[in-house]
Each structure stands twice: as structure tokens, then as C-alpha cells.
């Protein structure tokens, strides 16, 4: 279940209440007359089944509440209520399969911004990857994968392309195109300083075979990227965020960026080039698969919406 709060101008309160009261996927309807100060209006609350949330939000937006008032939603971990159970049973489809598009837009939009936090995580991840390459430690490479924040912008690009939100695509692309070069430059500086201080020898990568998979590009690289992108987007759209950890540790994006810098310092330009190619293959594969998953889920949701009036009739 999701908890919905809508700030509603008084002239639309009756319509909004009627909409929520008659929708089978809504329960626990509450109205606070004049409770909202800015913007002024009534505060309406309801618990809605996840599979009905998209329909309800679209209907509220048609009333103009997103412009003249406000609409917020948050997940409910527990709802002990016969009314809530009835709403979930009456709503078409399964909650785990439902995509709340406005929620997805908000989530990916927030995670796609190129800011100091995003850049710091990406730089730390690339530095960890470089350490893993230099020490021939696959465990450290996995740690770098988990720390890397790049899946957010990649998911945002897929969402933006499917929903034709080009502003979201541009913002996410800026985060990737700007973030990776900066993180790689920081990593290059770190490797140079470490080599100068005698902490490690970059040329040791020639014999560090446990991490060779980072720069070895092949059909399997693209297949893994496709599977990871599909699984990641499925996790985001079905509210199963725990599965994203598995996605993070299956793609060779951040490790490839880190390896490229170590190989460059060691003068192994062939490995550096293949590492950059590995990075690009993984980025493209993730976005492609994520977009395909979204397209399929959107078509399924639209088909269900078309069949709904027929089933009622």
C-alpha cells in the first residue's frame, strides 16, 4: 500500500473526494478542511493499492492538483485493515508488478543529478577499483562496484527515453559524461602519487590475472550488461530495491574506469583502451535493457487499462 496526501483547493475538494471514494483501490479516506496553509486548501489523505496508484495520480493531475495544490506518496510497510485488504484485492493486477510512473520519475530524477555527493561516491569507487587492480584483489573490485552510484543516471536515461522526458535524459547524461572523466582524473592522480611515493608498482598489473576480466571485452560483457540493466530496472519498478545490490556487483563500469587509469600509468595502452571499451559496452547495455523492460511493462500496463472497462462491462 501507498499513503497518498493531496493538497486540494476548496473548489476541487468535492471532486477529489468523490474520485477517491469511488475508486476500488483506495481506502482510509480522510479530509482536513482548511489544514493547508501554503498553498491554501484542504488536506486529503488516503491509502491506495500500489497497482491503483498510477490511475489515481493521473486522475488527480487531470483535476490540476499537481499545479494548484500538491500530491505526495510514501510506502507503507504494514497496513492492518480489512478495508486496505479489500482495496488491494479490488485493484487490478499485482502490487509487485505495478509501476507507479510518477514515483519512478521522481526517484530517477533525484538520483541523476551531478552533484558533489554523486561525484564523491564515483571518485571513491574508481579509487577502490584502482586499489583492487593494483593488489589483484577481486574482493576490492566488488566493493568498488557496490560503492559506484552510476546506475541512477543510467536508469534515468532509460526512463527519460521511454517517457520522452528529454530534460531527464540530458541531466543524467551530464552526470555520466562529466562524472566519469572527473573520477578517472582523480584516480589517475592517486595512482601517480602512490607510484611516486613507492606504495605500489603500476607495472604489477601485468601479472595480476585475477582482475583480467575487467578489461577483457567480449560478447559475455554485453550479455551481462543487458541482464544487469533488465534486473536493475525490474527492481526499481517493483519496489524490490534489495535486488539492486546484485546488479551493482555484476557490471564492470567503475572497475573498468579504475583499471584504465592504472594501465595508462603503467604504459599498457592496449589494456587502457579495452577497459574504456568495457566501460562503454556496459553503460550502453544497461541503458538498452532497462529501456526495453520499461517499454514492455508500459505496454502491459496499458493493455490492462484497456481491458479493465471490458471486464467491468
Automatic annotation (TrEMBL):
It comes from the Bacteria. The chain crosses the membrane at residues 116-135, 141-163, 172-193, 213-235, 242-266, 272-296. It holds the Pfam family DUF389. Keywords: Membrane, Transmembrane, Transmembrane helix. This is Hydrophobic protein (TIGR00271 family).
Amino acid at each position: 500500500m501507498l499513503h497518498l496526501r493531496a493538497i486540494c483547493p476548496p473548489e476541487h475538494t468535492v471532486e477529489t473526494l468523490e474520485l477517491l471514494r469511488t475508486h476500488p483501490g483506495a481506502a482510509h479516506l480522510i479530509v482536513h478542511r482548511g489544514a493547508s496553509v501554503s498553498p491554501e486548501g484542504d488536506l486529503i489523505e488516503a491509502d491506495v493499492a500500489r497497482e491503483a496508484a498510477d490511475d489515481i495520480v493521473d486522475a488527480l493531475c487531470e483535476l490540476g492538483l499537481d499545479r494548484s495544490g500538491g500530491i505526495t506518496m510514501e510506502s507503507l510497510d504494514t497496513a492492518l485493515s480489512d478495508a486496505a485488504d479489500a482495496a488491494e484485492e479490488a485493484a487490478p493486477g499485482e502490487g509487485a508488478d505495478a509501476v507507479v510512473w510518477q514515483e519512478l520519475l521522481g526517484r530517477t530524477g533525484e538520483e541523476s543529478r551531478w552533484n558533489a555527493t554523486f561525484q564523491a561516491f564515483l571518485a571513491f569507487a574508481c579509487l577502490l577499483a584502482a586499489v583492487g587492480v593494483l593488489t589483484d584483489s577481486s574482493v576490492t573490485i566488488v566493493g568498488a562496484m557496490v560503492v559506484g552510484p552510476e546506475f541512477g543516471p543510467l536508469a534515468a536515461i532509460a526512463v527519460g527515453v521511454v517517457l520522452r522526458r528529454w530534460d531527464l535524459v540530458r541531466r543524467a547524461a551530464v552526470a555520466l559524461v562529466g562524472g566519469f572523466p572527473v573520477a578517472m582524473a582523480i584516480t589517475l592522480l592517486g595512482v601517480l602519487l602512490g607510484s611516486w611515493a613507492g606504495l605500489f608498482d603500476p607495472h604489477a598489473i601485468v601479472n595480476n590475472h585475477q582482475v583480467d576480466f575487467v578489461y577483457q571485452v567480449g560478447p559475455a560483457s554485453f550479455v551481462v550488461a543487458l541482464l544487469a540493466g533488465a534486473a536493475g530496472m525490474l527492481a526499481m519498478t517493483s519496489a524490490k530495491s534489495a535486488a539492486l545490490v546484485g546488479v551493482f556487483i555484476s557490471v564492470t563500469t567503475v572497475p573498468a574506469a579504475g583499471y584504465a587509469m592504472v594501465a595508462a600509468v603503467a604504459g599498457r595502452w592496449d589494456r587502457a583502451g579495452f577497459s574504456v571499451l568495457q566501460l562503454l559496452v556496459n553503460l550502453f547495455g544497461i541503458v538498452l535493457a532497462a529501456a526495453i523492460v520499461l517499454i514492455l511493462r508500459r505496454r502491459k500496463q496499458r493493455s490492462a487499462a484497456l481491458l479493465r472497462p471490458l471486464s467491468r462491462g
